[in-house]
Amino acid sequence: MRQILSVLVNNQPRVLARVASLIGQRNFNIESISVGETENPSFSRMVIVTRGDLPTITQVAKQLNKLIDVIQVEQLEKEQTVERELMLIKVEVPPDKRTEITGIIEPFRASIVDVSPQSLVVQVTGEPSKLEAMIELLRPYTILEVARTGITAVARGSVKKAAVL
Amino acid sequence: MAPQVETSMIQLVEREAEKRELTGSEILLRSLIREKVEVIFGYPGGAVLPIYDHLYKGKIRHLLARHEQGAIHAADGYARATGKPGVVLATSGPGATNLVTGIATAMLDSVPLVCITGNVAQNLLGTDAFQEADITGITMPITKHNYLVRDVKELPSIVKEAFIIATTGRPGPVLIDIPKDVSNAKAVFSYPVELEIPGYKLPGKPDPAQLEKLYAAISEAKKPVILAGGGVVSSGAADELREFAEKSGIPVATTLMGLGGFSGNHPYWLGMPGMHGTYAANHALLECDLLIGIGVRFDDRVTMGRIDEFATRARIVHIDIDPAEIGKNVSTWTSIVGDVKTVLQAVNQNVLQSDSQAWFEKLQTWRKDHPLVYQDNSPYLKPQWVIEEIYRSTWGEAIISTDVGQHQMWVAQYYRFHHPRSLLTSGGLGTMGFGFPAAIGAKLGVPDRPVIAVTGDGGFQMTSQELALLTLENIPVKVAIINNRYLGMVRQWQEVFYEKRYCDVDLTGGPDFLKLSEAYGIRAWRAKTKEEASQAWKEAMEHPGPAVVDFWVDPEENVYPFVAPGSRLDEMVMGDE
């Protein structure tokens, strides 16, 4: 089962290494991990997507809590979570096909962020499934490069606080 | 009165000295003094030269090991025997990497260590400089926490934090890596009195509701058993455990790490369970209807990795300081997270006698009918007999350290431990070479108790260079080599599981341990019969200085009982019955 953990950590050198090392050491999988500073520059937030049943995820959270640099671990419930990922996708497109591309990406509310004579860079944001659909639609053109951030997520407004593990 | 005046004068002078700017090295040593560090085990090198230059002034005793691994195991033995943190100091690169086995050893057995390493100056970090190793990266998974000190101003609070983290909660090793430029940089020294560590959580007092649940379980149980582990020893809860067992009438099995946490002479004691456990302990764990695990982690040497067959009829109540241990290996019926001593003190206030007399009598029968046995009928000296002889000479009052393998199990089986902090053994990592240096550290920490390193002819050779320390510092550790001319435990497995295809386990022709000891100026004896063994051991114990006794024992003796990996706990090969 896919699980999302939101982990508040000290904004210190090597904290990402500590977290990634621990998850590897304990034989858990990481699907994606994203990190950024919070509103308080002393802390960063990591959003970790992993797979496992409830005992496994509880064990991941408990082990993360043992790291001194981990301040808090929350489990985000799928239904009560806004999750987003950003993708940049570079496609080989001759000038005469650009309008086709515009037509494809419009329903995705994606945008073209770079144009060169033979290629375009499309930026798209959303849940991972949306990003995958975008890739499939652009596959008939030549995809030159894909870069994804991994998901980041927060609990929805009505939820005061996610489950603290 | 006079000494007090003297102390305050010294303090005054010290305080005065600290008003000027000090180097990182001096700040480090003053911080260690503030932490009441008496002894450092270490080995110098380029990156720690500034630190050694301050050690030269002699305010803390430093013991020069002959290998960093010896230094860290000695610090570990000191910590296990005293309960105080052990401190080890090594240089960058190979000095630091030589600590790795010792750090992992301490991590798996929850031993408080503060490991200080030097590193190359910060302008060289990351350039593959001479003797550079990323020791904070390397030790991330085997330390409770580690630090790379980037600014001399942070050093006092980092040292303070390191000692807090190493010694509180579930203890463990902490590493502080200090680049050479930080050791040389100057700052005004101010040692923090208190320190907040935001991400560091310690459990509080047990919840009354959880205690009620435990009481209910005890009152409903007909076949309760306590499994006590290293947590009892490290939290200093031996008295509380005895009170709990006696008040509730529940018998106690102690894991390898728990030996001494409950007296081996107590009528409630069932022995050690697991791969080489007693009949009574193993059967009790399988048949019980209530299993109270106290300061244990249900390691695979106890459960045999057969969770599906482990205590299947029991409610498992797990008491441990580390929340991550709850539910890690076995599913629990309920749990109490907290310091074992604190929890047991609370439990003991209202605990009632369990209704388990029939069960208790059954266990006593098992104990009586299935004791540990060995056949003492060959011309060879039997290793079990040697352990019994060591026990008879000390009556359980000694501190015994061991290496890893057959002799370790024989010590666990045949030496009766009556006090906590009496068995120093690498239970989790299973580190050969641990026992002898650990004994050195233990003797320094606890000089008034006899300290005996029981080791094998294999393990002893991994750190025997530390014999130099015994002579030069005149540390009266006694070494008992259980010499079977084999890597005995590996040989036993090759005998049982690989049809006696003995491959690379034969140690015959290894060094003459008498000559080796004598080369270091240490008196040594050799014994091949009971008479020789008794005489040699008596003389060695009476000898005022360090001593080595080389016991030549039956080379093909096996450790029994023996439960094969993957078998159920009661599928025991009982051996030479």
UniProtKB/TrEMBL annotation, chain A:
<dbReference type="GO" id="GO:0003984">
    <property type="term" value="F:acetolactate synthase activity"/>
</dbReference>
<dbReference type="InterPro" id="IPR002912">
    <property type="entry name" value="ACT_dom"/>
</dbReference>
<dbReference type="InterPro" id="IPR039557">
    <property type="entry name" value="AHAS_ACT"/>
</dbReference>
<dbReference type="Pfam" id="PF22629">
    <property type="entry name" value="ACT_AHAS_ss"/>
</dbReference>
<comment type="subunit">
    <text>Dimer of large and small chains.</text>
</comment>
<dbReference type="GO" id="GO:0009097">
    <property type="term" value="P:isoleucine biosynthetic process"/>
</dbReference>
<comment type="similarity">
    <text>Belongs to the acetolactate synthase small subunit family.</text>
</comment>
<comment type="pathway">
    <text>Amino-acid biosynthesis; L-valine biosynthesis; L-valine from pyruvate: step 1/4.</text>
</comment>
<comment type="pathway">
    <text>Amino-acid biosynthesis; L-isoleucine biosynthesis; L-isoleucine from 2-oxobutanoate: step 1/4.</text>
</comment>
<dbReference type="InterPro" id="IPR054480">
    <property type="entry name" value="AHAS_small-like_ACT"/>
</dbReference>
<protein>
    <recommendedName>
        <fullName>Acetolactate synthase small subunit</fullName>
        <ecNumber>2.2.1.6</ecNumber>
    </recommendedName>
</protein>
<feature type="domain" description="ACT">
    <location>
        <begin position="4"/>
        <end position="78"/>
    </location>
</feature>
<dbReference type="InterPro" id="IPR019455">
    <property type="entry name" value="Acetolactate_synth_ssu_C"/>
</dbReference>
<dbReference type="Pfam" id="PF10369">
    <property type="entry name" value="ALS_ss_C"/>
</dbReference>
<dbReference type="GO" id="GO:0005829">
    <property type="term" value="C:cytosol"/>
</dbReference>
<dbReference type="InterPro" id="IPR027271">
    <property type="entry name" value="Acetolactate_synth/TF_NikR_C"/>
</dbReference>
<dbReference type="GO" id="GO:0009099">
    <property type="term" value="P:L-valine biosynthetic process"/>
</dbReference>
<keyword id="KW-0808">Transferase</keyword>
<dbReference type="GO" id="GO:1990610">
    <property type="term" value="F:acetolactate synthase regulator activity"/>
</dbReference>
<keyword id="KW-0100">Branched-chain amino acid biosynthesis</keyword>
<dbReference type="InterPro" id="IPR004789">
    <property type="entry name" value="Acetalactate_synth_ssu"/>
</dbReference>
<comment type="function">
    <text>Catalyzes the conversion of 2 pyruvate molecules into acetolactate in the first common step of the biosynthetic pathway of the branched-amino acids such as leucine, isoleucine, and valine.</text>
</comment>
<keyword id="KW-0028">Amino-acid biosynthesis</keyword>
<dbReference type="InterPro" id="IPR045865">
    <property type="entry name" value="ACT-like_dom_sf"/>
</dbReference>
